[in-house]
Amino acid sequence: MNRLLQSVLIVAAATLSAVAAYAGDPVFHGRWQQLGSNAGGCNACLIAIVRHGDILTVTANNGWSAVIQADRRGQALLAAGAGQWRNVTSAVYRNAPFELGFVRRDERLHILMVVKSDDGTTSTIKGVFSRPTPGFEERGRFPPVSRTSFSSLAHPGAPGYTKDR
Fold it and tell me: Which one is predicted more confidently, 128 or 93?
């Protein structure tokens, strides 16, 4: 994991209040609606997280997906991993790989994404999500909750990764 991302997650975890553990540990999985982001407001931006043991797949309706792993450090609840923007999204992030971290604080999910561009520079995207407002799911705006293929989320340097994904 990127040392910058790891450092930011550790600092964030140290400053966040303790989070209560739930029976069955439904900490990250489920559906989340974006409340805010430094990349611009988007009330229609949604993510679906599916648990596969300690591994979780994340699918966003705005063109990215990732595989993350849950981790507990002290009282903070963290998850970190890697993913990629789809080739059909905006020219800014099209096909770009990224590393990301999640921190759960109370009923909010804080996301930090470090996107790597072709020229070696990075962009940092911060977002805050909550469980969706009542009635939002009935309007059909959620990304599908499915078991994303792990091979389709290969990170640069991993066997089978190609830039054309």
Answer: 128
Label residues 124-163 b or e (16+ Cβ within 10 Å = b). Answer: ebebebeebeeebeeeeebbeeeebeeeebbeeeeeeeee
Query: Would you give the distance in Å from CA 89 to the centre of its chain?
Result: 17
Q: Where are the alpha helices (DSSP H) in the chain?
A: 3-15
Write out pLDDT tens, residues 6-17. 655 554 554 443
Distance CA 7, CA 126 (A): 15
Q: State the pLDDT at residue 67.
A: 96
pTM (predicted TM-score): 0.68
pLDDT at position 149 = 44
Contacts within 8 Å (CB) and 24+ apart, 13-22: 13/73, 13/74, 13/76, 13/78, 13/103, 14/76, 16/76, 16/103, 16/105, 17/105, 17/106, 18/75, 18/76, 19/75, 19/76, 19/77, 19/104, 19/105, 19/106
Pairing state of beta strands 97-105 and 122-130? unpaired
Asked if residues 59 and 148 have their Cβ atoms less than 8 Å apart, the reply is: yes
* Residue of higher predicted confidence among 118 and 31: 31
